[in-house]
Amino acid sequence: MTVGASGADGAHGADLPGTGVPGTGVPGAGAPGAGAGGRGAGGGGVRARVRTRDGWAVQHAVLTVTDMTGNQVLRAEADDEGFVRSAEPLPAGPYTVIATAVGYAPAASTAMVTASGRADLGTLVLARQGGVELPPPGAWTIDPMHSTVAASAQHLGMTSVHGRFTEFGGRIEIAQDSEKSSVEAVIKAESINTGNDMRDQHLRSGDFLNIETYPDITYRSTGVDVAGPDRWTVHGQLGMHGVVRDVDLDLTYLGTGPDPWGGVRASFRATAELRRSDFAMNYNQVLQAGIAAVGTTLRVDLDIQAVQGESLPF
């Protein structure tokens, strides 16, 4: 099964400022003169920023603007941070905006330039080329070198403490019918790393993971429900600390593409929330103010790359 997000948003998107036209890929603008991302106040022209579905800048994306007759009136390139800024005012009226970048599917939208000669397009989201199309059916192997299994918990009722597991592996099976896909994964509990050795040793102890008795954390899917063109709910069973519970993953597909080693990779993002008490991890220290030192809920974030085939290329 897959663990991550698709590229449908690059084609759909949000409304453009001042147009009220849905499905353009651009959220509403801020105050006049604010510019994309709060930059470049004043003047005419076009302001925008180009991002991937998971928020990364698309460097050197190209923004092409045409009038309603199809004539190109502007062509601008994004900078290293994905921002597009043009200073040349445009005549008021509707325009077509197309954002393109190598390796990404083009995203088209409609913009309305105001009497000021300016259009603030907000954030344009580009999907990976072929991002909506699911990976080819068959076996896929999770690549732990380019994946992250992370968890966070609230500390003292204020900030969050973040940790990750550094040793894990798994197998994804993509079925012709996506709802029949599956995933199995094993995480080594002792590989927890929060950046503090004393805290990590405590997490490995009987108060929490108890790695001597329960060295592995396991997950096996039991079903998949489609939640959108690029989203699924993965139903499965999580085994941890000697307890097995039903846990759902909110899964988004991020796309498929070639890698430098001659293989094909698919990427996914998944999230879940767990209650420690469900897995018999009830340790806590309550402060005088009645606040728990460690939160009772864990947030789990998975960023997964999987390689097509039964094994990794290295």
TrEMBL record:
It comes from Streptomyces tubbatahanensis. This is YceI family protein. Belongs to the UPF0312 family. Transmembrane segments: none annotated. SUPFAM superfamilies: Starch-binding domain-like, YceI-like. Coiled coil: none annotated. Residues 1-47 are annotated as: Disordered. Residues 1-19 have a biased composition (Low complexity). Residues 139-307 form the Lipid/polyisoprenoid-binding YceI-like domain. The lineage of its organism: Bacteria, Bacillati, Actinomycetota, Actinomycetes, Kitasatosporales. Residues 20-46 have a biased composition (Gly residues). InterPro entries: Carb-bd-like_fold, Lipid/polyisoprenoid-bd_YceI, TTHA0802/YceI-like_sf.
